[in-house]
Amino acid sequence: MGIAFAKGHGTGNDFVVVPDLADRDDLTAEQVRAICDRQTGIGADGLLRVLHRDGHYFMDYRNADGSIAEMCGNGARVFVRYLIEEGLAAPGDLVIGTRGGDREVSAQASGDISVVMGVPTTPQLRAVPVVTVGDRSWNAVGVHIPNPHAVVFVDSLDEAGDLLAAPEVSPHDVFPDGVNVEFVVSIAEAHVAMRVFERGVGETLSCGTGACAVVWAARRQNGAAQAQTWIVDVPGGRLEVTERADGQVVLTGPAVIVTRGEIDLSAL
């Protein structure tokens, strides 16, 4: 069975985009894994299925292992770039649906896309989460936006190691649905750099919800009266995160579609 696809990325976080406006071709977790496989499939950090529900477009996001996530900031920008290039939406302001709720989006003349990501929350944890890599451990800040994150402040990003395996997070039941782990260093005032291990994927070049969680935690590390807009450097580029007065966090960055084609699912 052949289905159309596009592939794009936001600061190196890459996605396969599959249009399914009639909601007829739901993909199994096994099919998503096969499509996202970097050796035998197209290769991507995740898959975005384009649906049309309740009067607007809905982003059905799956991690590379086929699991479902609430939201994806870089994916949302790629999703909107696809809508614009396909003539399904015009540049400017629009609303897209996600499992984390509806999201206001603005496609700017500069080419950047901004997504209102929601208000971060601190989960009710029975213990302070501890992240361990090798023989080193750090207390982490738990943040939901809406994906779960464990944010760790370190002196050097090298302390995260090779991130070929997921960092250990304890107590083991503190994030029952899994967690993204961010390692963060300060670069300058209102400027940080990060690496991330994403649940269901592995280390990625960027994570939009992770960047938002990092800025939220960093602002509170030394008092939230600091600058509202921060720069976040990720291995794949640079993002901008703004925490508005109403508590909403806005993620801004580039998104590009790099190729289109057709997937033969029977060959995967």
Do you know the CATH topology of the largest domain?
Answer: Diaminopimelate Epimerase, Chain A, domain 1
Average predicted local confidence, pLDDT: 94
% residues in beta strands: 35-45%
Number of helices, counting only DSSP H or I runs of 4 residues or more: 3
Count of the domains: 2
- Kindly provide the name of the CATH class of the largest domain: Alpha Beta
What fraction, in percent, of the residue positions are helical?
10-25%
Rg from Cα: 18 Å
Quick one: biggest sheet?
A: 11 strands, mixed
* Count of DSSP strands: 19
- Unreliable stretches (pLDDT < 50, length at least 5) are none
Describe the structure in your own words.
- The structure is a single chain.
- By secondary structure, the chain is mostly beta strands.
- It folds into two domains: 2-119 and 254-267, Diaminopimelate Epimerase, Chain A, domain 1, CATH 3.10.310; 130-246, Roll (Diaminopimelate Epimerase, Chain A, domain 1), CATH 3.10.310.
- It has three helices and 19 strands.
- Strands 5, 6, 7, 10, 11, 13, 14, 15, 16, 17 and 18 form an eleven-stranded mixed β-sheet that branches.
- The radius of gyration is 18 Å and the shape is globular.
- It starts with a strand and ends with a strand.
Layout of helices and strands, plus pairs?
Layout: E1 2-10, E2 13-19, H1 29-36, E3 46-53, E4 56-63, H2 73-85, E5 92-96, E6 103-107, E7 113-118, E8 130-133, E9 136-139, E10 141-144, E11 148-153, E12 168-170, E13 180-188, E14 191-198, E15 202-204, H3 208-221, E16 229-234, E17 237-243, E18 249-253, E19 256-264
